[in-house]
Amino acid sequence: MANNKLISPFVKWVGGKRQLMDSIMKSMPENMKNYTYVEPFIGGGAVLFHIQPKNAIINDLNSELINVYNVIKENLDELVSDLKKHKNEPEYFYAIRELDRSADFEKIDKVQRASRLIYLNKTCYNGLYRVNSAGEFNSPFGKYKNPNIVNEPVLKAVSSYLNSNNIRVLNTDYDAVLKNLDRNSFAYLDPPYHPVSESANFTGYVQGGWNIFDQVRLREACDDLTRRGIKFLLSNSASSFIKDQYQEYNISTVKAIRAINVDAGKRGEIDEVLIRNYE
């Protein structure tokens, strides 16, 4: 049975995997349907929605993002209704953007918070979720003529998928997810990438960002998965540091087009790696 193409990312997320999908699919283990699919850095969910597994665990440390997944699953009608209230105007955009500067932000209804994230994602510059060190959304207004703020068919399809399958949605540290897996699990890991240069660094969708020590900690978690006989596939930048960290694993180099480098001359096709602990 063919997958439903309407089940697709409802937000644009940095490092999205749609253009690498063929390479990722070719790198997956055989008989994927026999595994519980686990994605500890779910982001926009491109790989999840492409595979559409019946059993999955998805997670992200970004509580605002995970709130959107839960609201799409549990409060779809209220979300669509709230999204229809938004205006594609700079003054309105900045008023909505400023809400997370308030001490009362946590008191805002979960549906309105989910609606806010989708609205900002659809109308901000480059359509990328980005926060500063204080965790405040800081992308500017995008000046798009007719952004698709209310993509109702996609939201309905995603909601139906999340409700008609066994999909656990978590909001915790990735290591807490990995520690509870067994050999019937397969983990796809798409962490914040290690920068290939200073100007290419973009970890602004996680408050605090990621550094070398975070990358080493993740590699250690991958070593632990391997010791326990659990298969993983990981994507990252093709930096010498990452290749050195995972030198004992199978590493494939793939091409991706990225537009997040602050130096416009360095945007374009770059090397990334897919790393796995199986043949």
The span between the termini is 27 Å
| Rough outline | globular
What's the tally of helices?
10
Chain oligomer state: single chain
Q: Number of DSSP strands? A: 7
List segments where confidence is low: pLDDT < 50 over at least 5 consecutive residues: 200-205
Encode the helix/strand succession as letters: HEHEHHHHHEHEHEHEE
Task: Describe what you observe in this structure.
It is built from 10 helices and 7 strands. With 279 residues, the protein is of the alpha/beta class. It has a 7-stranded mixed β-sheet, with helices on both faces. Strand 4 (185-189), helix 9 and strand 5 form a beta-alpha-beta unit. Helix 4 packs across helix 6. The two termini are 27 Å apart. The relative contact order is 0.16.
What's the short version?
This protein is α/β, with parallel strands linked by helices. Helix content is 34%, strand content 16%.
Write the layout of secondary structure elements.
Blueprint: H1 21-27, E1 36-39, H2 46-51, E2 55-59, H3 63-74, H4 76-83, H5 90-97, H6 110-123, H7 152-164, E3 166-170, H8 174-178, E4 185-189, H9 212-227, E5 231-237, H10 240-245, E6 250-258, E7 268-276
Parallel strand pairs: 1-2, 1-4, 2-3, 4-5
Antiparallel strand pairs: 5-7, 6-7
Helix pairs in contact: 3-6, 3-7, 4-6
Identify the notable features of this structure and list them briefly.
globular, 279 residues, seven-stranded mixed sheet, single chain, alpha/beta
